[in-house]
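Suppose you are handed a protein chain with no further information: no name, no annotation, nothing but its sequence. What can you learn? This example shows the usual starting point.
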Amino acid sequence: NHSTYSDGVHSLEQMATYSKTELGLEYFGICDHSKTAVYAGGLSIERVQEQWAEIEQLNQKLAPFRIFRGIESDILADGSLDYPDDILAKFDFVVASVHSNLRMEEEKATQRLITAIENPYTTILGHPTGRLLLSRPGYPIDFRKVIDACAANQVVIEINANPLRLDLDWRWQRYALEKGVLLSINPDAHRMEGLADMQYGVHVARKGGLSAEHCLNAFSLADITAYFAKQKK
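A reasonable first move is to predict its three-dimensional structure. Written in structure tokens, the prediction is:
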């Protein structure tokens, strides 16, 4: 989810308060764009630190509701993420996503994702193919190799609930589940109303056979807090 820190329409406090009061949720994960995404107002390290300070204040104000501090970190052409390790280590979770160089041939594109998946700070692989339905075809990847890498490195795969994405495609969700990979239905909301896009993600997740026990953001607050803490170790 995004806020006015990057390319969102509503502030972090508005997004979190809406999640708590209107949707009745226990927690909210913010993952604004990282510094390479200049087109989307990507966060410099200084802006990241400003956001962390606000999250700390809001968590006190909204408790027991909790905001988890995340980032949607761009996967660079060589598969690296675009913050130094000492910054990546301080996020609760990191969503690694491709937003550029979408025309790589399959072998190179697959290796790019695997390198990002093997980064010890990657928590979730975001919209794996980068597709936009009806306008942009997906990134050509070897799905089995990418999913196998996620299984080996305990990386969650996103089901992006935006109706223009729905990526990971439902036809590959069953293979991910067979390999023991957790999936996460992420709204990718850029405004409060965008949180309602969860419904589309839920529909395709059900089509792909996902159950609550294998869906990261169906975890309780206590369980997802423990999960993030375990992954950071």
